[in-house]
Design goal:
Elements (H helix, E strand, L loop, with lengths): L1 E5 L3 E8 L2 E4 L5 E7 L3 E9 L5 E7 L4 E3 L2 E6 L4 E6 L8 E9 L7 E9 L10
Parallel strand pairs: 3-11
Antiparallel strand pairs: 1-2, 2-4, 4-9, 5-6, 5-10, 7-8, 8-9, 10-11
């Protein structure tokens, strides 16, 4: 969860759920990003450990799909979903939701979810 304070009494809260997602290979997943203010666009990113941010989707209205990934947005209801179909080990990453909103002079806010591959031992628990 991220809370942004800007100006006099201006607040924007962006929440992404779940915070950590553990998947079996081949299963489906859904991430959700909620915004307390009216949003004008959402951008979803993926970041592998130690790697750069990779832009997955930038949306203002229409759902988008790329391979096994799909994203939807509802600016009216202030949320976006990222769907992962038939998860693969390469999907293990941090997923970041960045929201642009209509409040004047207020920067965008973002939050993240870490997705882990259940077929691999957790960090620090090598067997």
């Amino acid at each position: 969860m991220m809370l942004m304070k800007v100006g006099v009494g201006a607040q924007m809260k962006v929440e992404q759920s779940p915070g950590v997602l553990i998947l079996q290979e081949g299963s489906n997943a859904s991430l959700m990003c909620n915004c307390s203010n009216t949003m004008t666009s959402v951008q979803w990113f993926q970041q592998n450990p130690g790697g750069p941010l990779i832009s997955l989707f930038y949306m203002t209205s229409q759902p988008q799909e790329k391979g096994r990934l799909k994203s939807t947005i509802s600016t009216k209801d202030r949320y976006s979903h990222l769907y992962i179909r038939d998860s693969q080990p390469g999907d293990s990453a941090t997923y970041i939701c960045a929201v642009e909103h209509s409040a004047l002079q207020t920067p965008a806010a973002c939050t993240e979810t870490r997705a882990e591959d259940l077929t691999q031992p957790p960090e620090g628990e090598q067997g």
